[in-house]
Structure formats: structure tokens, C-alpha cells
Amino acid sequence: MFIMKESKxxxxxxxxxxTAKVTTTKAKTTRPKVTRTRTKRTPKVTTTKxxxxxxSVLTLNHYVRDYQSRVKIHNYEFTLFLNDCKKGLQLARxxxxxxYNYALESYKTHFNx
Length: 113
Fold this sequence. Notes:
By secondary structure, the chain is mostly helical. Strand 1 and strand 2 form a beta hairpin. It has a domain at 60-113. The model has no long low-confidence stretch (mean pLDDT 84). It contains one helix and two strands, in the order ββα. The protein has a two-stranded antiparallel sheet.
């Protein structure tokens, strides 16, 4: 097989049915690189002066009354908690008692005791 440079045709010494076609591809175009220049930005700093809060006008008597009211609320909620616990224990005792009685009656009727 011989390739002729000037005509760009493939010449073969063997007979063939058809001649091969040579196609050329287009050269790829490359885009020029674009570089971005970055500018340094300086952050804007704003300073605000803090204002001093007004003086506290609460006296020791205010703190004592606040503490006493908080203790009263705590005691009230704690007694409610204890009452709920008592009710829960009574319910558990009734349920366990009824289960015991049912098991005892079932045993007596099953074994004729």
C-alpha cells in the first residue's frame, strides 16, 4: 500500500473494488485564556459605642420576696408530684391484688381445691 503525499490518495498494488476516501479533520481552535485580576477589598469596620445600662433599682427586699415566691411554687408542685406518686402506687396495688385473686380462683377451679 502506497500513500502519495501530494494527491492524498491511497494507491494499492492489489486490485480492489473501490477506492478508499481520505478525509481530513478540521484543526481544533482553542480559546485564548482569560485571566481575571482580583482587586483587594478592604472590609468596612463600623464601631459602635456601648451604652451603659441603667442602674438596678432592685433592693434586697425584692430578692427576698422573689425567693419566697419561688419556694412556695416549688413546694406546691412537689406536693402535686407526691400525690401523683401515691395514686400510681394505689393503682399498682389494686391491679396486682386483682391479678392475685384471679390467679388464685383459676387455680382452685382448675384443680378442684
